[in-house]
Amino acid sequence: MTPSLRLGLTLLALALVLAAGLHYLQRAKPSVPASPPPAKAIPAASPPIAPSSPQGQGNIEGEVLLDGPPPPMLPLKVGADPICARAGAMDEQVLVRDGRIRNVVVRVANGSSAPAPSRPIEINQEGCIYRPRIQAAVTGQTLLVRTSDPILHNVHAYFGSSTVFNQAQPPSSRAIELTVGDSVGILKLRCDVHPWMLAYIVVTNNPFFGITGEDGRFQIEGIPAGEYVLEAWHERFGKKTSQVRITPSQTLKVSVTYSTEDRNR
Ligand SMILES: [Cu+2]
Predict the structure, then answer these.
(1) How far is the CA of 52 from the centre of ligand 1 (A)?
(2) Fold assignment, 57-259
């Protein structure tokens, strides 16, 4: 082999390695993040309600209480399908611990509209249950509906009483990508094959919301100072509103109390 031929072969091999590497990088870059972090109360990338507001920002820390004994948790009536009929699956409509309610969405109801975060929110179908059951989104945000189940589901979305989406999702299929509409309200997902499968997305128009965790507490950070209506929503107990005043650099403590008689209507 002549020196020039050897040099040529070496360069060719180098070019092939580089080409393979570039190809891998392109394939490895997913179009949609496989599992972005769950929606947080304050997406960092979202602009505040009033970016030029000179008066500063404050926070809310709150708890949501149930006045009275929580209704008993009932087993889910999941039918005979062995994939769905896991032992011990309970209806998670009302989750209460130490008198505090989980899965209440609390939002600034009269804030100025802000663009949706570019990051999607996600729902997965696992063992014939939507996870998470409750979340919130900003108008125009992307929603990805995934399935981990080896059986057919049918994703049926309602906004109010109107169907906005209805599509079968076979096992191993790609995530269904939806865009949350421009109206504030409640987006409900139900599976037409398994009617106990329910999920709710509270659609709001700004990033200032929180969802109570297992301890029934929530927080909302970085709210421009001012007077607001704070609205809490629970799938069984419905809405509660209150007036709040946000003061710069202060954390307002808020307590929302539902009665066991309250209903979502
Ligand atoms: Cu289903």
Answers:
(1) 46
(2) Immunoglobulin-like (2.60.40)
Q: How far apart are CA 108 and CA 134, in angstroms?
A: 17
Q: How far is the CA of 112 from the centre of ligand 1 (A)?
A: 37
**What residue spans define the domains of the chain?**
1-30, 57-259
pLDDT at position 4 is 52
pLDDT at 6: 54
pLDDT at 145 over 90: yes
User: How far is the centre of ligand 1, averaged over its atoms, from the C-alpha of 130 (Å)?
Assistant: 9
pLDDT digits (tens, 9 = 90+) for 17-69: 334 333 322 222 333 444 444 443 433 444 445 444 557 999 999 999 999 99
**47: CA distance to ligand 1 center in Å?**
37
Q: Taking residues 186-195, what's their average pLDDT? A: 96
Residues 6+ apart with CB under 8 A from 153: 125, 128, 147, 168, 169, 191, 193, 194, 197
DSSP state of 68: S
Residues pairing with 220 in the sheet: 60
The DSSP result for 202-238, as a single string, is EEESSS-EEE--TTSEEEEEEEESEEEEEEEEETTTE
DSSP H/E element including 16: helix 3-28
Give distance in angstroms: CA of 202 to centre of ligand 1.
21
Alpha helices in 160-211 (DSSP H): none
Instruction: For residue 59, report the distance from its CA to the centre of ligand 1, in Å.
Output: 39
